[in-house]
Amino acid sequence: MSDRGSCMSDRAIMRSWLAAELRDATFRVEFANDNPAPPGWGPQGRRIPRFHMVSLRSGRLWYEIDGDRRAVRPGEVAFVSPGVVHSADEDPKHRPHLLTCRFEMVGRGGRPRRPRAPFSAFLAVGDRRAFEEQFARLYRGFRYGRSPLDARACDAIVTQIVCELAREAEGAARRADTAIDRVRQRIEECPERRAAVADLARAAGLSRRTFFRRFRAAHGCTPAAFQIRARCDRARTLLLTTALSVKEIAHRLGYADQYTFSKQFKSVVGSSPSRFRALQ
Questions:
Q1: Tally of CB atoms within 10 A around 123
Q2: How many domains does the chain have?
Q3: Tens place of pLDDT for every residue, the chain, 280 residues?
Q4: Is 184 a member of any domain?
Q5: C-alpha angle 174/176/181, rounded to 5°?
Q6: Closest by alpha carbon to 28, among 51, 49, 9, 48?
Q7: Cα 137 from Cα 144, distance rounded (Å)
Q8: Are 14 and 137 within one domain?
Q9: Which residues of 199-213 are buried (b: 16+ CB within 10 A; e: fewer)?
């Protein structure tokens, strides 16, 4: 199985994983850092057997997870589970000050535990100042702590950070679902107004990729297919309640010609517009 096929990039997986695992498991910190990236820094194709998260205090950073490459800005976190391939690139003119942490999840008896399937997520921090203060405490405890109590304190900080990130992801998911519902209503109310996926994503306040994936998950089809279906639903109403000709209905719904309208209508409804009207 390819890396892309084996990694499910979904914040929902992170939430469900946490809810199931944190009942009887804890985190154990392996590495923490709060420093500028060294010159030439930029791991490529890294796959580690630990959970990993990276954020920024300042500077610029590009991170690629499962083929999804994007800029990570201060206040955002790239989070990967064990087994996920990830790469990073710095901007030499704006060298990143990195906040990084590697940790493992351990169950009873200290045995490492991993999610059933690898996952990754780009997450937003709710309170950037509080997040950076948490990370500073984590780094100081990891770097200068000497006792088992210091280690347990670091583990507790990571647990708090990850839980707060998951909670923010849950809130973001709810907001995204509401935004997608607004876009659905917009399409159904004005099906004659054609819109590109990028425009619909912008209206929802989501990236094109995230919008496309969430819309298809919610409605079982692509945004383009949903727009066609919405136009055909409106066409059925017009065919049944008005005396408009097929050509006039096609024009009202924004079609350039009657042939394209009839072809799409038949693919959705199962019969041509004229036959549909005749059979009612």
A1: 21
A2: 2
A3: 233 333 434 566 677 777 677 777 788 999 999 999 888 888 899 888 899 999 999 998 888 887 778 888 888 898 888 988 899 988 878 889 999 999 998 887 778 888 877 888 888 888 899 999 999 999 999 999 989 999 999 999 998 998 888 877 777 767 777 888 889 999 999 999 999 999 999 888 888 888 888 888 788 889 999 999 999 999 999 999 999 999 999 999 999 999 999 999 999 889 999 999 988 7
A4: no
A5: 95
A6: 51
A7: 10
A8: yes
A9: ebbeebebeeebbbe
The alpha carbons of the chain give a radius of gyration, in whole angstroms, of 25
**Residue at token pair 């420093």:** 35
Which two structure tokens, joined as six digits, stand for 232? 């055909």
- Which tokens belong to 137? 């405490």
Rounded to whole angstroms, how far apart are CA atoms 145 and 149? 8
Going by C-alpha positions, the residue among 20, 14, 31, 7 that lies closest to residue 165 is: 14
Instruction: Show the DSSP H helices in the chain as ranges.
Output: 3-6, 11-21, 128-144, 148-189, 197-204, 208-219, 223-241, 246-252, 258-269, 273-279
214: left (phi over 0), alpha (psi -120 to 50) or beta: alpha
Residue 244 corresponds to which amino acid? L
Domain CATH code at residue 266: 1.10.10.60
Same domain, 27 and 129: yes
Q: What angle do CA 194, 199, 200 make, to 5 degrees?
A: 80
CA–CA distances in Å: residue 234 to residues 185, 187, 242, 278: 13, 11, 12, 17
Of 2, 144, 168, whose CA–CA distance to 79 is shortest?
168
**What is the domain range of residue 257?**
190-280
